[in-house]
Design a protein that fits this description.
Length: 108
Amino acid sequence: MSDESLKSRVETWMVKQMPIIQMHGGTSMVREADPETGQVVVELGGTCSGCGISNVTAQNIKRDMYMEFEEIEDVQVKVPSTGDTGADTVEGGRGGDVQYSNESAGHF
């Protein structure tokens, strides 16, 4: 296992996933990556909101993260709706005003 934090490794992994997401005007942000619980929360933004295949993108991210990171036990991928606004940014063109609904943790 690397000395690099789980969040940093997940962010680096997401940057590799970004070309296809960005190609369609989407963004992503790693909100949480807890190595103790194995919980990862990724938020999609941009044109992912309202996209008819955002649920497919979310499922692909989940599946691939489970395969890539043995310490990950639970992945939540949130797709924007309304609600809180995040201002964190990371490399790869991700971040900015990503919003998600607080109504349901599994909201797509």
